[in-house]
Amino acid sequence: MNYVFEFSAVFDAWDELLAGTLRTVWLSAAAMGIGLVVAILGALAKTGGPRPVRWLIDAYIELIRNTPFLIQIFVIFFGLPAIGLRLEADQAALLALVVNVGAYGIEIIRAGIESIHHGQVEAGRALGLTNLQIFRLIILKPALQAIYPSLTSQFILLMLNSSVCSAIAASELTGAANDIQARTFRSFEVYFVVTGLYLALSVLFWGLFAWIERTFLRQPAPR
Known about the structure:
Blueprint: H1 8-11, H2 14-48, H3 51-65, H4 69-79, H5 89-114, H6 118-126, H7 131-161, H8 173-184, H9 187-217
Helix pairs in contact: 2-3, 2-5, 2-8, 3-5, 4-5, 5-7, 6-7, 7-9, 8-9
């Protein structure tokens, strides 16, 4: 084996990797925030909407969950211009991530809503609580506790899936790595460092999510 490892070329472009990392975090956070809105509205419509709306939501969920994310982003970036809707690479990446995470989020949030026993809701109504009070005081926290692990796992998966957006030249971490590799021809070194960055991001967010759960969502210990 005559290959000589040379990481200096990678670290010389550290500012590009850092910018790509921050872009990945921003893209993932924005997609998750917007996707949660889509998921909440979709879950509410699926659990209490008219039948045609439920059918449409089911079709959307099955379409997204049973097709590759790469194909979805290609349809948005390369397909939509055929009908007159042209998006920049970063815009298409954000839209594709929102569409993807929204489909998974609908099922997660629906399961959280349905985990609340109907008798608790009826008890709230018997006490004279409004629908908003019932949602805030009875449904919200127990539902969040039930779905929080799934939501945080979905965020990590979303962040890792954002690497696929480099296929349309979106300006995120893998896209920056591809540019550096094309200049330096140091494939192993570039992608080895990028692997470490994705791992560090995952560990960082897992720690943050665990702290949020301990601080705000965990039930107090019985005395």
